[in-house]
Amino acid sequence: MKKILNIKTIAMVFGLLTIFAWTSCGQTNEKPVKENQTSVKMDKPDELGMSQKTYDEAVQKKGIEAVEKEKSALLAEASDAIGETYDALAAIEKGDKKTAIKHLETATGKMEILLARDPNLDLVPLDAKVETHDLVADLEAIKAIKKIAEKAMKDGHFQAVREELENLASEIQVTTVSLPLTTFPAAAVAAANLLEKDDTTAAKLVLYDALNTLVIERQRIPLPVLRAEVLVEEAMSQDAKTEDKKAEVLQLLESADYQLTMAEELGYGKKDREYAALHKSIKELKKSVEDEGDSQGLFQGLRDKLAAFKKRLFS
Fold this sequence. Notes:
Layout: E1 2-4, H1 6-24, H2 52-71, H3 76-93, H4 97-117, E2 123-134, H5 139-154, H6 158-166, E3 171-180, H7 184-196, H8 200-211, E4 215-222, H9 223-237, H10 243-265, H11 273-290, H12 296-314
Parallel strand pairs: 1-2
Antiparallel strand pairs: 2-3, 3-4
Helix pairs in contact: 1-5, 2-9, 3-4, 3-8, 4-7, 5-6, 7-8, 9-10, 9-12, 10-11, 11-12
């Protein structure tokens, strides 16, 4: 599901402005909110440096690659084990103890296969849900929203800003449901033993408790970081020997720098020191391109830093 929030962003700003005005009413002696002195100031580049279509397709490809990497970890045996557990519960409800035990034996067998492959396996991914939340706003709009929200939060209007702040995101969200192998197999065996003793109520409770131990994890892939990667890779692929090509490469690097600043302002990495290193690398690259130096080593270094940074943010 993709949410493009350009219209909603306007509504968000208006709503928060209303809150801000309301909370400020009658407080003429209050000191104005100071802007964060560490906030990065950067104008949005006038041009992207590459065609919008190529850019969008490359970013989409990056996102698919990241998501598919996560989905590749899903194991059919784990999903089958959960399915057998639900089938066992359905059989118990029908009073079919023999079928229920058979389903639990199958579920246990599936989990034993997983443990045989890797005895140290703890959480086994069952399912992954993917959502894209893309905020269409520039840096100044994001800063304005943050400043107003900080004021509202300071005045204790938490519920008024909570939902709006949740929308202040530009990311791919991957929600993974995992099976804990440390507890689930034992629960299936215990439930089967209880059924052998005709204690169906206790068997159901054990199984429901086991199903409630499924672990839900949410990972986020910041879209501005993916976009910066695409822009850097495009710049790296260009031969900046002519003035026109040099200008194109510099524009791409400027756009990548802007995307990283967007990611930083949206809170991905919490003003991480790695942002400073990435901005510095881009600055050095731009100087190298301008001076017509050999920039391939600097490009590769920046690509490696971006890849490592993205991996850490997504882990």
